[in-house]
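Quick entry between incubations.
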Amino acid sequence: AQSVAQPEDQVNVAEGNPLTVKCTYSVSGNPYLFWYVQYPNRGLQFLLKYITGDNLVKGSYGFEAEFNKSQTSFHLKKPSALVSDSALYFCAVRDATSGTYKYIFGTGTRLKVLA
Amino acid sequence: AAGVIQSPRHLIKEKRETATLKCYPIPRHDTVYWYQQGPGQDPQFLISFYEKMQSDKGSIPDRFSAQQFSDYHSELNMSSLELGDSALYFCASSSRDRGTYNEQFFGPGTRLTVL
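Done. Structure below.
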């Protein structure tokens, strides 16, 4: 069965400091991994994805994520946080070899960037 | 760029009533997904359609049904509404024919409140 874990309900970081939002996954086949951001009363906005290739993927708004197969992790990172990055972040996985296209989401991590 | 359109954005219903949520995917997208996000919860996959045929089924209650029409828009029909159905319902679309790993694009959601 597929699953995604986001171990931190909330992450606080000072503006200008680097941020990391953690995600680990479990799938029986090859994972396709995604990060989405949700602002209050808004839909989910796509940030970045890992399909294959380079383990470090770059996405929107200066975010990047590193795929680590041995640790089954896909942590979201940004070198310098902005107050406007404060939002709810979801990691999602799709099992590429299962024949299914649905996403399994993590429970979300609320990022709070302090001025 | 055109995005996923959902209507209505807000809906208030009484217990045991019915509701219909509509989703208009991004033009030329062939796959539609429905997710339910309860308060403080992660999005849970309900059902998806590819080329007007059901492709995946998740935790959709028997009281709910959905379909995708010839113009690719989709409707989620909910009957015998319960208080626990109060949630944010997201529709997402993707283009499967362009590649099997394209990300899903989410609409703004329909907030359903059951009184």
